[in-house]
Amino acid sequence: MITLITKYFPNLSEQQLKQFAALYDLYAEWNSKINVVSRKDFDQLYLRHILHSLAIAKVCQFEAGARVLDVGCGGGFPSVPLAIMFPDVKFVSADSIGKKITVVKGVCEGADIKNIDARNTRVEQIQEKFDYVVSRAVTEMPAFVKWIWTKIQKGQKGTLPNGILYLKGGDLREELAATKIKWTEYNISEFFEEDFFETKKVVYTQK
Q1: Residues 73-119: pLDDT tens digits?
Q2: Which domains does the chain possess?
Q3: Distance (Å, rounded) from C-alpha 18 to C-alpha 55?
Q4: Would you list the DSSP string of 142-160?
């Protein structure tokens, strides 16, 4: 299934190809112990989790040295695929559920991903500042923005100014309007042709 990744990202290094290829068996092994990917769609791991996470890389290319926080990372999406894609970027993957962080650490170790710091913590307890915050449908946007807004530093460490890149589906107008900040919506179907992405979006706002 790695062909699904190389179809849209043809210039991956040998190391990146090896890492993406390793993810299936690693997640299969960890998922049998700790259920982080729904069993009914596990065979769609590369489509629904890995490629979906990489939609962020189609919207913004992070610069070397950028710091990215993944809030409520679950089993490591979107940060694990993004960390493979951007090996010179520093990721912090945070989740309040300890066993999910156990999976992230185990997958990183197995796939030789060295640029993720996986933390079992609530986002409110994180003190550092980041260039970008990424996440995948963790909560309603107004609450999410409240949690993380002060953790983003102004500047530009990628092809877009620093800010939030959030994976979400459906009609978001009301939810985004409630945050009182300006958002740009990117339809993932413009990057990837598979039907799964028809209603999926990356929403972005700059700090």
Answers
A1: 999 999 999 999 999 999 999 999 999 999 999 999 999 999 999 99
A2: 3-206 (3.40.50.150)
A3: 20
A4: HHHHHHHGGGBPSS-SBSS
Residue 118: strand pairing partners:
93
Query: Which DSSP state fits 63?
Result: P
Helices 98-111 and 14-33, axial angle in degrees (round to 10): 140
How high does pLDDT run on average in the chain? 95
* Res 73: pLDDT: 94
Burial of 137 from C-beta contacts in 10 A (0-12 / 13-18 / 19+): middle
CA angle 156, 149, 125 (to 5 degrees): 115
> How far, in Å, CA of 196 to CA of 49, rounded?
11
Of 66, 60, 71, the C-alpha closest to 155 is 66
Residue type, 190: E
Identify residue 74 by its one-letter amino acid code. Answer: G
Hunting for tokens 């933390």 — which residue is that?
A: 119
| Residues in a beta bridge with 53 | none
Q: Enumerate the β-bridge partners of residue 15.
A: none
Query: What torsion do the CA atoms of 64, 11, 161, 169 make, to the nearest 10 degrees?
Result: -130
Count of C-beta atoms within a 10 Å radius of residue 31: 17
